[in-house]
Design the sequence.
């Protein structure tokens, strides 16, 4: 019967007949859960939302830093800063840590506000419909971004699209929906920002045990996921690193390996007759012995993987700027670096002036006092300060001055 009423109302409108009262108002409210405690109120939503907002803002800013360090527009390529040398280690470590902490925060936030999904009538006006739509986008983008980001860190890609461009696009979508959400909810957010704010005057001055338990539980969950994963980047906490996919202590020569030589199809035979080709005004080809006879420098720099793990190591090799000088290239030339790996997303990388001029940027031959192992890029690999791990090319065979 009810549906007939709605249908008749719509048909009536279409024919321009006098409008019956708004049909939705006649719908009886279906039986819905009611909540009398304070776990689902606006103050709880504001408090959890603040932390979630901080986590998302950190993710967005550090994500953009990661994006532009890897894909700088032309005008920026030579201006990318190579210092602080630990910069990318910090920003990407924060990205994955705040993203991981956001998982329990998002779950708690959704649980707090879910009764509002049953508010009746579901759609009140065009404005209300648009607001609901923006919430739908926000929730979907948040769940998607956290889920795919987390799975990426364990290198599991159970989806048909390419992670990086989609994660990048959804980051903008999510941030837009979040800004809109904060703008729409601004009156409620300010009313419940502080416990003593006007909007909450009538509420009990002290939080009841229900809300305090929720907050303690949430803090414990955030603390637990953080403490058991952050050791992948924060070396003093590495003994607590139980859940992160990489452990700083596991790997040959005291350093984890992301893509092994076997996975990259690089065999010991492929590197026996290795030569390094350097193009430029005075192109040359160098054997490993010739490289080792050039002035060697030792630097301490991290490998900071985009997937969140990082670790410092001691690298010894030839300064890139010395190689440039020998090839007759002007200081601050940009380079294209190619690996002898046959295929793979990280076979070729470009390096701008900021890096090539830096005395810490090496073509490394040794790691922690030993000749590089094949998994770490033998015979020679790039190591540069403030550079995403994916651009620290292993098994280098060619350096071209651009
Ligand atoms: C609010 C949530 C998030 C936002 C706004 C965000 C944003 C971004 C952006 C803009 C990038 C750069 C993408 C590019 O290079 O084009 C990025 C990269 C990345 N994000 Fe997120 N992210 C979020 C959550 C997460 C989470 C929860 C994780 C994992 C715990 C994660 C893991 C990663 C990883 C591993 C990369 C590097 C991808 C690569 O270059 O291979 N993200 N993120
Ligand atoms: N040629 C080549 N270089 C590469 C890669 C690769 O797949 N191919 N992987 C990169 C990634 S993702 C990281 S994190 C670092 C890891 O260096 P490591 O294995 O020596 O720790 O190498 C980088 N260099
Ligand atoms: Mo990496």
Sequence:
């Amino acid at each position: 019967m009810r549906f007939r009423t709605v249908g008749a109302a719509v048909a009536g409108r279409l024919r321009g007949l006098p409008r019956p009262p708004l049909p939705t108002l006649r719908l009886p409210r279906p039986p819905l859960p009611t909540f009398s405690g304070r776990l689902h109120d606006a103050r709880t939503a504001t408090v959890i939302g603040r932390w979630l907002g901080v986590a998302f803002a950190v993710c967005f800013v550090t994500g953009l830093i990661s994006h532009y360090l890897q894909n700088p527009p032309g005008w920026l390529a030579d201006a990318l800063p190579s210092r602080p040398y630990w910069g990318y280690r910090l920003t990407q470590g924060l990205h994955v840590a705040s993203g991981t902490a956001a998982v329990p925060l998002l779950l708690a936030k959704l649980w707090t506000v879910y009764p509002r999904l049953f508010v009746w009538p579901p759609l009140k006006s065009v404005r209300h419909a648009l607001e609901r739509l923006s919430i739908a986008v926000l929730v979907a983008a948040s769940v998607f971004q956290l889920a795919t980001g987390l799975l990426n860190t364990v290198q599991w890609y159970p989806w048909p699209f390419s992670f990086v461009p989609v994660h990048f696009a959804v980051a903008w979508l999510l941030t837009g929906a979040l800004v809109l959400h904060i703008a729409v909810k601004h009156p409620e957010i300010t009313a419940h920002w502080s416990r003593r704010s006007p909007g909450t005057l009538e509420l009990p001055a002290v939080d009841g045990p229900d809300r305090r338990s929720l907050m303690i539980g949430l803090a414990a969950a955030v603390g637990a996921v953080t403490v058991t994963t952050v050791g992948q980047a924060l070396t003093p906490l590495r003994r607590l690193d139980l859940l992160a996919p990489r452990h700083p202590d596991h790997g040959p020569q005291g350093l984890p390996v992301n893509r092994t030589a076997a996975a990259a199809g690089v065999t010991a035979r492929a590197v026996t007759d290795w030569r390094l080709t350097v193009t430029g005004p005075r192109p040359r080809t160098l054997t490993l012995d010739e490289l080792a006879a050039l002035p060697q420098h030792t630097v301490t720099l991290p490998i900071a993987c985009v997937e969140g793990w990082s670790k410092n190591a001691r690298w010894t090799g030839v300064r890139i700027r010395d190689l440039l000088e020998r090839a007759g290239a002007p200081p601050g030339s940009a380079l294209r670096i190619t690996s002898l790996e046959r295929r793979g997303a990280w076979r070729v990388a470009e390096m701008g002036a900021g890096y090539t001029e830096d005395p810490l940027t090496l073509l490394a031959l040794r790691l922690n006092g030993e000749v590089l192992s094949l998994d770490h890029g033998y015979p020679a690999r790039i190591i540069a300060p403030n550079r995403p791990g994916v651009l620290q090319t292993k098994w280098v065979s060619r350096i071209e001055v651009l």
Summary: The chain has 13 helices and ten strands. Residues 42-70 form the longest helix (29 residues). The beta strands are 276-278, 284-286, 297-304, 310-319, 335-339, 348-351, 362-367, 370-371, 381-383, 396-401. The pocket of protoporphyrin IX containing FE (ligand 1) is lined by residues 56, 59-60, 63-64, 66-67, 70, 95-96, 99-100, 102, 145-146, 149-150, 152-153, 164, 167-168, 171, 174, 306-307 (CB under 6 Å).
